[in-house]
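Much of what follows relies on a compact textual record of a protein's fold. With that in mind, consider the following protein and its fold in token form.
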Amino acid sequence: MASAPDLADVPADTLFKEVLRRLKCSVKPEKRIILVGPPGCGKGTQSPIIKEEHCLCHLATGDMLRAAVKAQTPLGKQAKEAMDAGKLVSDDLVVGIIEEAIKRPSCSKGFILDGFPRTVVQAEKLDAMLAKDAAKVDKVLDFEVPDQVLVERVTGRWIHPDSGRSYHTKFAPPKVPGKDDITGEPLIQRKDDNAETLKSRLEAFHKQTQPVIDYYANKGVVSKLHAEKPPPDVTSEIQKALGS
């Protein structure tokens, strides 16, 4: 087992920041939050802000599955067997991986769940798992954006493949059209960032996700966000929804 780092080797400002973080987090109430929204709705912009403000862990189910497979946990091995056989990973398995994850110290104040549940059955299984510890979903943030706005957002995205730097032809254009600001190398569009693919994804999203939103709305925990607004305005709406 690796030995713990010697605190004498940790810079004083790093220690001070960590102490302040822990003091801040110690008084934060627990929160369990689900983010729901279509491609390009802004969840990726807002989730780090929510995570920092409320001392939560961020759980993206796709990343968690890959991590469990890589770590060869018992559930990860089961997931790998399913994927290798060309099958979907079962809802019970995904909920099990979430259950493992939320026991980590980083999730002691709660979590942000992104990408799950996608169906009412998954929502019911998630609720049943949380109920075993007398817990529940506290808030579902519904990132609402008109489809035509999403088309403009997504089809205008360009990236620099090596660094991941992103641009937008309207909202954040590069200094030279089609070129990365730092290297001058060509920018590319992801193959899914086109109107036809996006339309298909949006249709699937609305059909699949609306019942989940209705399910949680009946529990009184859904807050609808005007996610087409500028990011600072959306952040303000989220703060009001979460009582911060």
Observations:
- The mean pLDDT is 90.
- The radius of gyration is 20 Å.
- The beta strands are 31-36, 57-60, 110-114, 139-144, 157-159, 166-168, 222-226.
- Residues 31-145+228-241 form a domain with the Rossmann fold fold (CATH 3.40.50.300).
